[in-house]
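Appendix C. Worked example: Tetracycline repressor, C-all-alpha domain protein
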Amino acid sequence: MGRPRTPLLDRRRITATALELVDEQGEFSVPQIARRLGVQTGSVYHHVDGRDGIVELLRERIAEAIDVTTLDLRPWDTALESWARSYRAAFAAHPRAIPLLMINPVRAPRVLQQYERAVVLLRDAGFPVAEVMPVIGALENVVLGSALDLAAPAAMWEIGDAAATPHLAEALDAAGGDRADRAFDLALHGFLTHARARLARHTGSRTE
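Step 2, the predicted output written as structure tokens:
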């Protein structure tokens, strides 16, 4: 038999299969990937740097959906807000990947380059170097928490007896179906307001 025109195994197929497993169950294993692709486990290891390597391939795959050109916008807060919204959308498509990726160090070169651009944005805006990573980390807390919130059940609070918690029942009724989006907008606005104030203290500029 001649060689198949399409390779049975490559990094793209391994990544896609791992992402399918994560979307389904929140985790993956190399043997699971191999079984789904119909190959031996050892064959998978020929194409990737172990399980950690697959995690970084997943990170790169999801991050591809983030519009990095938003980091070229000015002023800095417009860029950061646009990046946050794109970042949230990318991870909201794969919320079960968030816990997996957040407990593994970021090593993927293309993802590191995205952080590099965010750091340059904040440094150019006037943030002291010691402030930069806390600002980025705080923004990620807002973004990733909101991405998980989007994946939560529509009825996150189940009230059996409205008379026992009447104020909660009233607040839930008033929240509407876009509760998660409104909560994200509120958190992002609060984050940006605080970040502007911190920058103003360092530069002496006025906040909006």
